Amino acid sequence: MPPKIPDEVVRHALYVAGLLVADIVVSAISWRLAGVKRRGTRLVGRVVAAFFSLANAGLALGCLFHLLRGGADWFYVALLVLGFVFAYRIGGATIGRYP
After folding, report:
1. What are phi and psi of 2, to 5 degrees?
2. 3-state secondary structure 50-66
3. pTM for this structure?
4. Cα–Cα distance, 80 to 83 (Å, whole number)
5. How far apart are CA 7 and CA 64, in angstroms?
6. Contacts (Cβ under 8 Å, ≥6 apart) of 58
7. What tens-digit pLDDT sequence spans the chain (99 residues)?
């Protein structure tokens, strides 16, 4: 019989998975919008990308401060990595580095 996983661990894993899916969707949409030839649509894509890039950077910095204050928890480390990775990935659309 497999060991029982605590409910808090399952909840945190669902938060990390949800954030990962949301970041992938937002990243794809912002890159698609920012790569369009129409100027207005490209501006909307860059604004969306800048907003979510700053949101991810804020999440990562908040997790970093939490890790510096307390102990290392896998949940905050995972959110820190996701925040910095997607801040860089989504932020690339704001400066014009399109795929």
Report:
1. -70, 155
2. HHHHHHHHHHHHHHHHH
3. 0.82
4. 5
5. 24
6. 83
7. 778 888 898 999 999 999 999 999 988 888 888 778 888 888 888 888 889 889 999 999 999 999 999 888 899 999 999 999 988 888 776 666 555
